[in-house]
Amino acid sequence: MKGSKTMSVIDAAAKLEEMKGREVVCSDWLEIDQERIDRFAVCTGDHQWIHVDETRAADGPFGRTIAHGFLLLSLVNFFRGDGDFIPEGIRMSVNYGLNRVRFLTPVTVGSRIRDRAVLSGVERKSKERVLVTVTHTLEIENEEKPACVADVLSLLYL
Question: What is the CATH number of the domain that holds 57?
Fold first, then answer.
């Protein structure tokens, strides 16, 4: 395209390096309702009573049903839409994997969570690829400890 400027992987990586250590997402709050939990149970086949049996869970250790840990982890992609920190010139981003993942506090039905994410790593992999690590902390409203902390790796292609 006439007049368009293309960004090299070096330029993109340098821009990302400048952002390293900064918060790149602070999402809106999302209520975790029973319908979302039930739908996740259907998708994964995980129908453990602490997630889907409201009557039994009322007498359980948390006093109500709780969200699946992997439901919380899967919401990272949903929350990522609240923060667009990827520089121009990136044509696609693919999931590359996870590093450290911890589920610290159960999320009871009706709770609200949000994601606070920090760009924690940038690594040039080739002339066309940059690997980024983003540390996601899923907070629970009015709770001291987060629900989940996970390092999510994405491969960015120029």
Answer: 3.10.129.10
